[in-house]
């Protein structure tokens, strides 16, 4: 029995952006950036490995094809295709809020 998963299994976990979502109240891009920074600053304190958090942040801030390569090379096990739930090889769970992965549909566009 080899470690490599079947091609079908890999295809099932192709990552994608979260479905469109609404924040509880309309927010500006600045507020969204602040929320994201706060999440990434505090997330490693809740467990898991810093290098996995770093890889997840890089993936969240990249386009999908690059994000796929980042999580694959970091050995991240993607549970939810939108990256909201992932694990590392040791079984530590990493939960990402949608706001670090995509913008809400009610983002206030500043002119």
From TrEMBL:
Ranges of residues in domain DC-UbP/UBTD2 N-terminal: 13-110
Gene3D superfamilies with a match to the protein in the record: Ub domain-containing protein, DC-UbP/UBTD2, N-terminal domain (1.20.225.20)
Pfam family, one: UBD
Start and end residues of each stretch annotated as Disordered: 1-28
Highest taxon of source: Eukaryota
InterPro entries in UniProt: DC-UbP/UBTD2_N, DC-UbP/UBTD2_N_sf, UBTD1/2
PANTHER family linked to this entry: UBIQUITIN DOMAIN CONTAINING 1 PROTEIN-RELATED
Name of the featured protein: DC-UbP/UBTD2 N-terminal domain-containing protein
Species annotation: Nicotiana attenuata (Coyote tobacco)
Lineage: Eukaryota, Viridiplantae, Streptophyta, Embryophyta, Tracheophyta
């Amino acid at each position: 029995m080899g470690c490599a998963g079947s091609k079908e299994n890999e295809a099932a976990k192709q990552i994608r952006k979260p479905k469109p979502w609404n924040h509880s109240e309309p927010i500006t891009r600045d507020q969204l950036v602040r929320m994201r920074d706060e999440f990434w600053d505090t997330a490693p304190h809740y467990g898991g490995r810093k290098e996995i958090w770093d890889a997840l942040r890089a993936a969240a801030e990249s386009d999908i094809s690059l994000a796929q390569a980042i999580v694959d090379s970091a050995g991240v096990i993607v549970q939810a295709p939108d990256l909201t739930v992932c694990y590392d090889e040791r079984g530590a769970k990493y939960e990402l809020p949608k706001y670090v992965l995509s913008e809400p549909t009610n983002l206030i566009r500043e002119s």
